[in-house]
Amino acid sequence: xxxxxxxxxxxKMEKMMASFSSQEKEDKNKKHAIIVYxxxxxxxxxxxxxxxxxxxxxxxxxxxxxxxxxxIEMVKKSGQMGVPVIDIDGHIIIGFNRPMIxxxxxx
Length: 107
Known about the structure:
Helix content: 55-70%
Distance between the termini: 41 Å
CATH class of the largest domain: Alpha Beta
CATH topology of the largest domain: Glutaredoxin
Strand order of the largest sheet: 2-1-3-4
Mean pLDDT: 87
CATH superfamily of the largest domain: Glutaredoxin
Number of helices: 4
Number of strands: 4
Structural class: alpha+beta
Low-confidence stretches: none
Number of domains: 2
CATH architecture of the largest domain: 3-Layer(aba) Sandwich
């Protein structure tokens, strides 16, 4: 009987923790404005976007091969013509730099 009660408590605790974890992800998305300047043929762009998705962050995906104005915006922000360029809350990351992404997202 005691084991049954402990099992029920454990399951309730797991549900509660899962709820908090889900809420934390939602809160993180609210805290960060993320733009990924990319092209469809760039493997590092794809890796950057996949990594952000795995972390649960929403972002604006800007295809600079199709949007000249946004490509110019990217160059003005970064001084770079290569992709990916990632803008997290106004901080610019050039290339797929996982440690810097983690740092800026507070991971």
